[in-house]
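Technical appendix A lists one of the benchmark inputs used to test multi-chain prediction within the project. The record comprises two sequence entries:
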Amino acid sequence: MAEAVERAVGLWMLTQSNEDLSIINQEIEQGSTSLVELVKILGQYLTAEENETRVKGVTLLVDVVTKLPDTSFTRQSTRVINAFLITKLDTVDEVIPALKGLLRLSTMSTYTASDCKDATEQLLKFPMRAHVQSTRNVVFLLIDSFMTRHRAALQSLGKAFVKGYISLAENEKDPRNLLVAFALDRVILLEFEVSDFVEQFYDITFCYFPITFKAPPNDPYGVTGPDLVAALRNCLSASPLLGPPGMPLFIEKLNVGSPATKKDTLATVAVCLPVYGKAVAQTTADKLWDGLKIEIFQPVDVEVQDAALEVTKVLVQTCHPDESSLEGIGERILKTCLGHLDEPSTSQGQIAVKLVLALAKSSHHIANQVLQEVVPKLVALYETAPDTSVRTSVLAALAAILEAQEESSKLPGTPSPLEAYKDSILSLFVSAIKSTSTAEQGLKGISHLVRALSLETEELNFLIRNLTNVLLESRTTKDDLTPETVAVLRTLSTISPTAVEELALPPLFSLLPDKPPQQNEPEARANCILALVALEDLCLHPQLFSRLLVHLSTKVELLLLSSERANESVIAYAHALLKTVYTTLATKSLRGDVDIPKYMERFVPRLYYLFFDMLNKVGAEGLDGYQALISDAADIITLIVASSNVERQEPWVVSLFGAFDGKPSSITACHATLPDMPQFKPLEVNGNQAHDSLVALFTAGLIGLHPETPLPVSDVNELLASLLQVAVTSENAEKRKALAYAVSSILNKHANDCSKFIDIALGSFWTTRVMNAEVTIEQRIRGLGLWGSAVRALIVRNHPASLRLARQLFALFDDAEMAIHAAKTLGQLPNLQESSLTKKYHSVVRLLHAQRLFNAVIAEILEGFSPAISSVKSNAYLIAVSNLVSSVPKSTSSQAFDKLFPLLLRGLELPDLDLRSNITESLVAVIEGENLTNGMDAITSHLGALIPRLLRNTRVDRHAHMSMRLKVNAIRFLGSLAEKMKREDVQPYRAEVLRELQSSLDDPSRAVRKEAVLARSKWYKCGSPPKSALEG
Amino acid sequence: MSSSTPWNANPVIQEVTFKSKTRQSAAEKRRATIASWFSLESSDDDEGDIAEDPIDEEEIFDLIRSINDPEHPHTLESLMVVSQKQIRLKGNLLEVEFTPTVPHCGMATIIGLCIRVRLLRSLPERFKVDIIIKKGTHQSENAVNKQLNDKERVAAALENPNLLEVIEQCLSSADA
């Protein structure tokens, strides 16, 4: 077998082909020959006189070694080859393969510490300067490999290793090698005895600082500047020994460097100082602070300032590690701070506050000592301040200090150093909120104070009383701070709900009279408004909300049940009260509060009772004037029902269906007794019209149900068909709307059980109620609306039948009377805003449902649209597209933007302002959106047609409905054109746009003027360097 | 322009935390909504369009408050160079007064020109605008006032590309 290897070796020496190499490797791997055997065969080449042959021999050996798996090595072969390769390190030509071979060997498990020692001793004599960077790289990698695997062996070499390594690393310039060298430096500094070599280490590390290296493009090794900076920073901060020689260099770089150097220096010092230790920090502190002071008080930019503040913090921390006084540098810095704080409203004064914050973050005892000086000074300044600018600055400073303390106050066992000044700060803030010029800052301070410090009951009460007074007085002040004041009270209500309930609520409640405020009582009305504004924002805590609900609902009941028939002012007042309950509840629901479901039993029946009771009282007249109140109640009911779980909903829905089938008492049984009302059947065709308006309350109790909540009917299909039938025959618009919502919600949640309804009932409804030309147009439009809300319920859940149903609408596009309505219905199908179909109400809403419909419909429209079709049809297409584009998510519509753009452009000339507003709004969304790529070209190629059309739309008559929205959007889009399009494309239009938009600067509406100013600014910017600032 | 020693190295800064107007209008809107409940109107209606909302001092102040100072990274509002109280509007006559931070401030003309250009670009042509330095706050008050309110001189100054660049720089923050 050895012959095969011998032959392959011979051949390789001639050809250097990989084939021969792999034959040799195969033989060794299979064990038919060994490495030692190979060395023997190679003997003649390895010892040949001729240089070239010797190099080839070594190369072959190394190539074999590098490709062989670990298992092919024995202890003996490793040792032999190692010894052999070591002898080659001082040669000229064989050294490169020898190093590579050693690198491979060093990773072997058979490679021992003594092998490593032998190799290292030789390696340390390596003449680095004589070799190119790639060879030097292998040397570094080899040492790195030794360092990882045989660190103890290297350590046993003692000073000889350190000295030898330093001479290897000296003068290295290649970034790739430096990256390895820096890592080695750090390990040696940390784990080797280096005290005799500090100066040398300083030389081979600090000479690189600061690194300004920028990687050349296409750098094959991918070494970046930040990599090097980080690696160097790690080794500069490796040993405290580097401190004494290093710090002066840092200070010098800080004083004379460029902003980039300063940033690097500051970041490095921040890491190094804690390592260098207290002694070094103290000796250099004064000089360092002199440099830092400049960067802090006359900063080149904010980043440098922040970095300098960070270093200051570290410096003080390092110099004063224990509980001792701040004597020395800490005191000096503090003095500087206090000096600038004499004038807290100047820019230096405000920087001094930043410095205080940085110091306060360093450690608890430093924070203590700094704040002990600063806080009393600020408090004193406030009291003697000559003007408000000083006072507001003091308030802002204290607020910032408190804010910084919020974090540390969360740690247990460390009382904030501010606790000692709580009283004076608290009274200072309270006096601040009593004066208009300082109220805002004072409130801000209080909001931080209550989070940073713990308040005693009496202090809490004091605060709550004062804040409530501010609220009550806000009627008379110009600057309305109600939201801010309430926000603080709300924070307090999480600390002590009872105190807020007892102290803040009664005065607010007392602003709400028992009788409705009349038109001619502006003050009473203002009081009501103030109270409601504050209450709806304040009463989110369960305890407060419960109190609010009881108070307001009792008031509503008294108002409505005390008289026979309520007049308009009573209804308006009750409306405001119910609306307040609803908005508070809605905020709570958004926050995910868990106390809402309990009102299912406590409050919902009471609401139903109220309306049934009123219905009994007013008799045949019905509750016609009460729509506003019914819809308020409906909102509240829906929200509470939707927040409840299936277990709560199941009994509920049974009583709901019972109540609307002649037995109202089934809902309200637990609350109060109601007589049976056998005629109360508003869900049947030909029911009493006086009961129609209460159908909204049926829907309200229904649309928040979970899909899993079983409905108390034998067949959902029949229920849906009958509700649809009742709806289409009703003359009451409110009732039709309520029923449409109910149908939509039920169908959406139970679609899987509704195939009968979808296939048969909905089909015949379409032919008899929508397509049927014999019914009146009004009836057909009504039918279309109901049909649309049923189909929408299927669209949102991607029901298989939904697209087929939606496409049916195209059949009406030729019908002159119905086309517009059908087009609008089609375009509004994905619009869920005016529907009960939201996740919040547990509807089944599938991802991308709008996109699915959009793609299908747009494809059909683009195919059908041609100049040949009738104007009725083409108009219908335009209307459908415009509506669709504005009712699907912007990301969906912008995908097809390039194809739709010509249609939208035509849409800008439709007579309907509302549609044009929608189109411009979509255009704005597209151009301001993130991926404009496919829209860019479309817009660019149509600029000539687009800009004049937009400009025309900015001149719409202001009395027209929705004209403001249209104008704002058109102008906004024009502005975005200047910003987003290529300069050379829009420049030709610059003068025209600037001129035309001038008239919008004088528009009666402020929003339009504001938009025009903005748009013109953008167009001014896109000019070529203008000859005059005013051209255009 | 930005020499190493600024005319006023330590100006007084007034903290403009967030535009009180935005906050104010949110609060007002809330009140208006609740007020509308009392008259049983639905508040979501955008019918407010038609109401006249003429240009007032506040709107003009909004146009100039965010202009940057030529030598500090602060706005004219936060340096208290301009304020709403210093804007007087009577029909089509507008007077904007500003206060340099120090009496020897060499930037006064530039600040005035920035305000001038901003208003020329943002107000309808019907306005006649006077821009003046607050009495007694600058040593060459009259000269600067003359420069700022003379059409020819303003036009001439704006022909200077370097000056124009500084002005554009200051105005770049005006829409913020």
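Chain A touches chain B through 60 residues (CB under 8 Å). Chain A has 51 helices and no strands. Comparable benchmark entries are summarised in Table A2.
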